[in-house]
TrEMBL record:
Domain Gcp-like: 26-314
Similarity field: Belongs to the KAE1 / TsaD family.
Protein name (Swiss-Prot/TrEMBL): tRNA N6-adenosine threonylcarbamoyltransferase
Binding site for substrate: T139, I140, S141, G142, G143, D172, G185, D189, N280
EC primary class: transferase
Gene name of the record: tsaD
Domain of life the protein comes from: Bacteria
Enzyme Commission code: 2.3.1.234
Protein source organism: Polaribacter irgensii 23-P
Cofactor dependence: Fe(2+)
Keyword Iron: yes
Keyword Iron: yes
Length: 342
């Protein structure tokens, strides 16, 4: 009888401390400790984030092991986020993973956070099916916006990416302009459901076929709001749902336009999404519609595997473990890491 492979995954790239245990590709636990401290600052404060990770990491790992109903001695290997992310936050997870792996005398596996977002699709779950190779993955988060061609688990090619701001930042900054609290992206999604997406028109940026730009759109939204508020001080309050619907419609149109171009250029019709912004309801709706309209096959992960979480780190670690791709204890965290770097 085959010995089960238990991978403990640790994620600490930004402001969420997470630990997960998977057994042979199935999630047994996925614990995430959110940090509330950043809301009053309107964004993540790196120094406060790394301090909170130090406080959270031991109880979070303990909780993950307890929920998985295993002891640390059963763990086959420890996977951790090496990068990209905030350096202070990454160091907490890296140091903890190294120490625990040394103490238990088990393999250490470094994981590229951006690859893990893509590979979350390979978590074994009755409710979802992994995409077949090759597929295109739209990776959308607070820090990244990329169209990636995936030909094998660890063979990825960036077809297009943002030349300035990420889509998650566009959502959050637009929300800030409207006076909504941080993080504002989910709130735009919430109010957009009640509004008219065609109420206000925003100009879509003109960049390459597969590249993105959101800086000009953010500026356009700011000037539009400022102009309307000079005419009517209560403009935002009176039109909040319509403004949110129009902003969301424009952003999702930009994403869908680029995906259509990618499908045309590659002739690949298996489309996956990954990253925190893939929790957005309008993006999910439009992808489902694309199956009917364009004959695409779309792969949408469960909500809990879209935002930063350790289950995606653990599944990536599991795939590396099968190939015996272990890290040396001298491995260091790296704040900047491309999705193509293993």
């Amino acid at each position: 009888m085959k010995t089960p492979i238990y991978i403990l995954g640790i994620e600490s790239s930004c402001d969420d401390t997470s630990a997960s245990v998977i057994c042979d590709g199935k999630v047994l636990s996925n614990i995430v400790a959110n940090q509330e401290v950043h809301a009053k600052y309107g964004g993540v404060v790196p120094e406060l984030a790394s301090r909170a990770h130090q406080q959270n990491i031991v109880p979070v790992v303990q909780q993950a092991l307890e929920q998985a109903k295993i002891t640390k001695e059963k763990v086959s290997a420890i996977a951790f986020t090496r990068g990209p992310g905030l350096m202070g936050s990454l160091l907490v997870g890296t140091s903890f993973a190294k120490s625990l792996a040394l103490g238990l005398q088990i393999p250490l596996i470094d994981v590229n956070h951006m690859q893990a977002h893509v590979l979350a699709h390979f978590i074994i779950d009755d409710a979802t099916t992994p995409p077949p190779f090759p597929f295109i993955c739209l990776t959308i988060s607070g820090g990244h916006t990329q169209i990636i061609k995936v030909t094998e688990h660890f063979k990825m090619e960036v077809l297009g990416e943002t030349i300035d701001d990420a889509v998650g930042e566009a959502f959050d900054k637009s929300a800030k302009i409207l006076g909504l609290p941080y993080p504002g992206g989910p709130l735009i999604d919430k109010y957009a459901k009640l509004g008219n997406p065609k109420a206000f028109a925003f100009t879509k940026p003109k960049v390459g076929d597969l590249d993105f730009s959101f800086s000009g759109l953010k500026t356009g939204i700011l000037y539009f709001i400022q102009k309307q508020q000079r005419i009517n001080a209560n403009f935002v309050e009176e039109n909040l749902n319509d403004i949110c619907a129009s902003i969301q419609f424009t952003i999702v149109e930009i994403l869908m336009d680029k995906l259509k171009n990618a499908v045309t250029q590659t002739n690949i019709k298996h489309i996956a999404i990954a990253g925190g912004v893939s929790a957005n309801s309008e993006i999910r709706n439009r992808l489902k519609l694309a199956e009917k309209h364009f004959g695409w096959f779309t792969y949408i992960p469960k909500f809990e595997y879209t935002t930063d979480n350790a289950a995606m780190i653990a599944i990536t670690g599991y795939l590396k473990y099968l190939n015996k791709e272990y890290a040396d204890v001298s491995v260091t965290a790296k704040a900047r890491l491309k999705v193509t770097e293993n």
